């Protein structure tokens, strides 16, 4: 609004409509400032140490708003330029000065308010730390219950404050670090409960004490990192992060090489040699790893050697071109640049393949959690000898997973994913020994229910992290394939003059804030359904199956519609959404045919049920197509159409949630027992063999879930009442 006022055209003729519009804008700015100042003054009254500064900034803002209102009070003037009253037409610089004062004072208020928020988080953290100290020292169960109830309430408050702060952060790397720290706190809250109870029940048990101390230490580190992010204090680890990733090194190196096209003299040749040397040094993490396959190791070494040769050739041509800029030399330089970049791309691809194939194999191999099951069984039996054997197995598994995280970190592609890899590595490093100490405690006290429950909690944390790794691996692959770490998004967007003859006649419309708020719940339901559908498709062994591919595409489209309800993603206008809905409906019809083809291969009692459910898809998809193609006019009608499209998309996704598990079950029943086995990689040699063969529980990872914290508090209150 301020920009509109300052940039208005100084026409000689000013209509009544123009004058009224200018006055309305001025009044709107003044009212907005008045509301803003009211909030600022309320904050000032609650925070006496900043009251004076905040009050001064509020007064300045209020004065500037009133000045703008006075200068735009022009609607009642027939000839404003001849009148003695000063207006925007006679003193435009006055509006500019008032606008500058307004912006600076508003900024002051925001900065002061931000300082207050930071102080609230620090105060909340200090309360949590103080209560943790009390929890560490308690000697009776009754006292522990009372203090833990208080601790739970304080953690809920801390969770709300840090959750809001995380949403406000603009830096994606800081946001990822905050999410990681809050995830640690969420998981540790339950661990702290069971570890402390175990220690109280078995006060002379050394392994129980070690287990409890580990949880407290982990929580303190996480609380410290939250404060470090909130106060924007730099740590040594943050500087180290940028230098470790091979991908970031390759990106910077390629930019420097390509910069030679514009300027032959902008850096010395030694710089490029040093940069390549650092990159190739980091590739040793892959070539030295015991878990990298022989084939990948050989390829990486070959490409490293080739990269050195290409750089030598590039430097040679580059030096010649600096002395003599002939056409032939410049062409040779271009060829050398292209070959150097191509070599680095191939190296990057090989590293990505080595890391992700190892991760996929490891995650699949450890999905049955055989070691954890064995530890639980032998712990209850009190078999210390078997516990020692299986703790060695778990330590080996931990080393494999830690190595996997380190290699994935190199190829993560973005800083937030790099942070997530570091968090995963730390989680495996810490949780492994905690599971071992919890298992030893149970083996020493095999009849202890609390010791058994404690081991279960730590094992669940391990399983949860393994489940999170599957999501992380998918996101890393998305980045590598150019999807920038977002969920897969279907890119069939309308372009002017294509797809639809009526596009030019329709004015693209975006949802306003009020409409987004109305449709938010529906969008969230759609988001949850896409997550459920994705979980079901991941259970299929054959990811190349036509049904899986159709469903993945539809899930991507549904997710892009969800993002539209939030005002995000690639669907920018309602017309984009309607076009996406049409394509979604077409894909749904094709999927129904795929289900029919699939049913022809079945010889099972479940075949009629599958056909019955698949038949429901066709009418819903047809209705969606009709709705999406229907022409509407007016804001209200457009919003109704948007709502209808998303509701019908939700219905289709609900059907898919029912169809996919049914298909998967029928496929397993009808599948022959012959399977093609790969040669066992080195980390498979010490496979734990037991007679059980259970399913991997599907888990949904929460990021410091408020509900789970509140449930801890509720449980403790119930315990206290008992």
UniProtKB/TrEMBL annotation:
Where does this protein chiefly localize?
cytoplasm
- Would you kindly state one Gene Ontology biological process term found in this protein's UniProt entry? Rho protein signal transduction
Q: According to its UniProt record, which protein family does this protein belong to?
A: Belongs to the vinculin/alpha-catenin family.
- At the top level of its lineage, which domain of life is listed? Eukaryota
Task: State if Cytoplasm is listed as a keyword.
Answer: yes
Q: Enumerate the GO terms in the molecular function aspect.
A: actin filament binding
Q: Does the keyword Iron apply?
A: no
Query: Subcellular location, in the record's words?
Result: Cytoplasm
* Pfam families in UniProt: Vinculin (PF01044)
Kindly provide the name given to this protein in its UniProt entry.
Answer: Alpha-catulin
Using the record for this protein, list the coiled-coil segments as residue ranges, or answer none: none
GO CC list: cytoplasm
What keywords appear on the UniProt entry? Cytoplasm
């Amino acid at each position: 609004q301020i920009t509109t006022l300052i940039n208005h055209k100084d026409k000689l003729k000013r209509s009544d409509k123009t004058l009224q519009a200018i006055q309305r804008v001025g009044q709107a700015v003044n009212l907005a400032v008045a509301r803003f100042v009211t909030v600022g003054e309320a904050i000032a009254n609650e925070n006496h140490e900043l009251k004076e500064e905040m009050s001064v900034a509020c007064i300045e803002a209020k004065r500037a708003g009133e000045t703008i209102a006075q200068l735009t009070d022009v609607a009642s003037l027939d000839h404003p330029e001849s009148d003695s009253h000063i207006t925007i037409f006679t003193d435009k610089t006055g509006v500019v000065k008032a606008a500058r004062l307004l912006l600076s004072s508003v900024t002051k208020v925001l900065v002061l308010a931000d300082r207050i928020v930071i102080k609230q988080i620090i105060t909340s953290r200090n309360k949590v730390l103080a209560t943790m100290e009390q929890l560490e020292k308690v000697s009776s169960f009754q006292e522990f219950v009372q203090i833990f109830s208080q601790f739970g309430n304080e953690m809920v408050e801390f969770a709300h404050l840090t959750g809001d702060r995380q949403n406000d952060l603009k830096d994606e790397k800081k946001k990822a670090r905050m999410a990681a720290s809050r995830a640690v706190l969420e998981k540790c809250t339950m661990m702290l409960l069971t570890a402390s109870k175990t220690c109280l029940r078995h006060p002379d048990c050394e392994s129980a004490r070690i287990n409890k101390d580990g949880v407290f230490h982990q929580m303190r580190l996480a609380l410290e990192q939250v404060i470090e992010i909130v106060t924007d204090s730099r740590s040594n680890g943050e500087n180290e992060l940028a230098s470790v990733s091979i991908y970031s090194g390759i990106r910077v190196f390629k930019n420097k090489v390509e910069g030679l096209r514009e300027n032959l003299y902008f850096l010395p040749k030694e710089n490029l040699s040093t940069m390549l040397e650092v990159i190739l040094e980091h590739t040793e993490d892959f070539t030295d790893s015991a878990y990298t396959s022989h084939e990948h190791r050989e390829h990486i070494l070959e490409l490293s050697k080739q990269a050195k040769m290409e750089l030598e050739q590039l430097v040679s041509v580059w030096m010649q071109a600096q002395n003599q800029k002939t056409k032939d030399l410049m062409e040779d330089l271009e060829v050398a640049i292209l070959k150097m970049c191509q070599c680095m791309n191939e190296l990057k691809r090989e590293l990505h393949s080595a890391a992700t194939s190892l991760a996929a194999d490891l995650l699949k191999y450890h999905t049955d959690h055989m070691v954890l099951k064995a530890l639980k069984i032998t712990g209850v039996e009190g078999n210390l000898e078997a516990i020692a054997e299986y703790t060695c197995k778990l330590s080996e598994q931990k080393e494999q997973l830690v190595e996997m995280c380190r290699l994935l970190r190199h190829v993560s592609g973005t800083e937030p994913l790099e942070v997530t890899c570091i968090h995963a590595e730390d989680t495996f490093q810490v949780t492994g020994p905690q599971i071992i100490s919890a298992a030893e405690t149970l083996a020493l006290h095999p009849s202890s229910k609390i010791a058994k429950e404690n081991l279960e909690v730590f094992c669940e944390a391990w399983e949860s992290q393994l489940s999170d790794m599957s999501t992380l691996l998918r996101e890393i692959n998305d980045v590598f394939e150019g999807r920038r770490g977002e969920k897969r998004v279907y890119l069939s967007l309308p372009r002017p003059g294509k797809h639809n003859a009526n596009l030019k006649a329709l004015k693209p419309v975006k949802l306003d804030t009020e409409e987004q708020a109305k449709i938010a719940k529906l969008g969230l339901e759609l988001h949850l359904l896409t997550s459920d559908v994705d979980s079901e498709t991941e259970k299929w062994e054959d990811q190349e199956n036509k049904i899986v591919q159709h469903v993945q595409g539809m899930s991507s489209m549904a997710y892009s519609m969800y993002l539209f309800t939030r005002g995000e993603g690639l669907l920018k206008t309602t017309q984009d959404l309607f076009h996406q809905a049409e394509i979604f409906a077409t894909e749904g019809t094709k999927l129904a045919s795929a289900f029919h083809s699939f049913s022809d291969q079945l010889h099972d009692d479940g075949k009629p049920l599958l056909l019955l459910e698949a038949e429901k898809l066709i009418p819903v998809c047809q209705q969606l197509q009709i709705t999406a193609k229907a022409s509407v006019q007016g804001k209200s009608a457009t919003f109704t159409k948007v709502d209808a499209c998303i509701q019908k998309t939700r219905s289709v996704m609900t059907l898919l949630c029912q169809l996919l598990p049914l298909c998967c079950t029928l496929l397993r029943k009808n599948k022959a027992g012959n399977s093609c086995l790969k040669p066992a990689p080195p980390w498979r040699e010490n496979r734990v063999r037991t007679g059980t063969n259970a399913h991997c529980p599907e888990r949904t990872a929460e990021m410091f879930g408020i509900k789970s914290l509140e449930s801890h508090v509720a449980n403790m209150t119930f315990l206290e009442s008992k």
